[in-house]
Amino acid sequence: MTGAIRIPISNMPPSANAMRSHFYDGEKVRSTKSKPYAAWKKATAWEIAGARPGRIDGPYRLYIAVQRHWRSKRARDIDNIIKPVSDALVAAGVISDDNLAEEVNAKWADNLGGPAVVVLICAAEQELAA
After folding, report:
1. Backbone angles phi, psi at 50, to 5 degrees
2. What's the mean pLDDT in 107-125?
3. Is the pLDDT of residue 61 over 60?
4. CA–CA distance, 105 with 82 (Å, rounded to integer)
5. Which of 18, 21, 60, 78 is the most buried (most CB within 10 A)?
6. Integer Cα distance of 75 and 108 in angstroms
7. In 3D, which of 74, 67, 76 has the Cα closest to residue 109?
8. Are 84 and 117 in contact (CB under 8 A)?
9. pLDDT, tens digit, for every residue of 79-101?
10. This prediction's pTM
11. How confident is the model at residue 1 (pLDDT cuts 50, 70, 90)?
């Protein structure tokens, strides 16, 4: 790959806190992916794959910009957005495994111009130009 891949994501990911549903099954507490998370991940993976952004093979650097107050004034934790976005990138085939991330940065943005999230991703040996 030469250069960074830019990927806009239309809808805000669910918080990492909402990724799993827990239920009691006899004597044990069980856990499964929540329906809203599974639906968001599937739709977002199709959105990303449909744009044909390319693929990073091997270690990578991930930069995530998230629209502040996107359709809500509710406060969110920026770090709870990283995991769902990483999972969608794996599901879309942009990266093979999110454990290959060498660096991850996430920040709030005040005007992304429409998308809820914009992702920049590049091979770990590359540096993004300022």
Report:
1. -65, -25
2. 94
3. yes
4. 9
5. 60
6. 12
7. 67
8. no
9. 999 999 999 999 999 999 999 99
10. 0.85
11. very low
What domains are defined for the chain? 5-123 (3.30.1330.70)
pLDDT tens across 67-82, in order?
998 777 777 889 999 9
Which two tokens mark 54?
Answer: 């390319």
Residue 123, number of CB atoms within 10 A of its CB = 17
Other CB atoms within 10 A of residue 90 CB: 16
- Higher model confidence: residue 15 or residue 95? 95
Helix (H, G, I), strand (E, B) or coil at 116: coil
Cβ proximity of 8 and 116 under 8 Å:
no
**CB neighbours of 105 closer than 8 A, spacing ≥ 6?**
62, 63, 64
Q: Which residues pair with 56 in a beta bridge?
A: 95
The structure tokens listed for 90 are: 């794996």
HEC sequence for 16-49: HHHCEEEEEECCEEEEEECHHHHHHHHHHHHHHH
pLDDT, position 53: 94
Q: How far apart are CA 14 and CA 88, in angstroms?
A: 12
Neighbours of 82 (CB within 10 A): 20
